[in-house]
Specification:
The structure is a single chain. The protein is mainly alpha-helical. The chain folds into two domains: about 55 residues; about 150 residues, no CATH class. Helix 4 runs antiparallel to helix 5, helix 4 runs parallel beside helix 6 and helix 6 packs antiparallel against helix 7. It starts with a helix and ends with a helix.
Length: about 210
């Protein structure tokens, strides 16, 4: 039996005997368990009738959830990526550079490719997002998906990294004297896209924590 399993068994038995949570916490802390580990162990149990500990629902992992959330976050990432790509192309047209080749100033293949992908990925993301909302409302277990938590935090990390790198690029361009309107527009687009992803995922994670 793993240490965590022995800890959880100890907590359950102590709660069943009517031991106060403060005493259980102090006993676990005396042998080296951290506050976060103690809180997690005690948080698995609710007070039931007659002081009997009742297990709380825990995050679940299912192949169906992994597939749906995987496709959902893929569609989200692709949508944001191609929105940025299309935005960069439009910024190049709106703020032309004398060094650009003539063929780059019109409706390029990059714009067509971005639009084609957005026509597929944006409706797919909206459809899957709506479906997952309905699933979580009809089945509370859907809000405890560990797959969503893992994938969501990975995308949160990527969004935070994009915001940080974007800020570094703007500062570097400013210090180098290369801060043009074109550059600022592209940096603002990246920051806005990453910020929207960050807010969406933070809301999604908070909703899962309340489920």
């Amino acid at each position: 039996m793993r240490p965590e399993e022995r800890r959880d068994a100890f907590v359950r038995e102590a709660l069943a005997r009517g031991t106060a949570r403060a005493e259980i916490s102090a006993a676990l802390a005396d042998v080296g368990w951290s506050e976060a580990e103690i809180a997690r162990a005690l948080g698995q149990w609710a007070d039931g009738p007659g002081g009997m500990p009742v297990p709380r629902p825990q995050p679940a992992l299912g192949a169906r959830d992994a597939f749906l959330y995987g496709v959902l976050f893929l569609a989200l990432g692709a949508s944001i990526g191609y929105i940025i790509s299309l935005g960069f192309s439009l910024i190049n047209v709106w703020f032309p550079d004398a060094a650009d080749r003539p063929w780059r100033s019109g409706f390029s293949w990059t714009m067509r490719w971005s639009i084609a992908n957005l026509v597929i990925f944006v409706p797919l993301f909206l459809l899957l997002d709506r479906r997952m909302v309905v699933n979580r409302q009809s089945d509370p277990a859907g809000g405890r998906s560990s797959t969503r938590a893992w994938l969501g935090h990975v995308l949160l990390f990527l969004a935070a990294a994009a915001l940080i790198c974007d800020a570094v690029a703007v500062l570097y361009a400013f210090l180098s004297g290369d801060l043009t309107i074109r550059f600022v527009a592209k940096a603002a687009l990246v920051a806005a896209a990453a910020g929207l992803v960050f807010l969406y995922l933070r809301g999604l994670m908070a909703e899962g924590a309340r489920a």
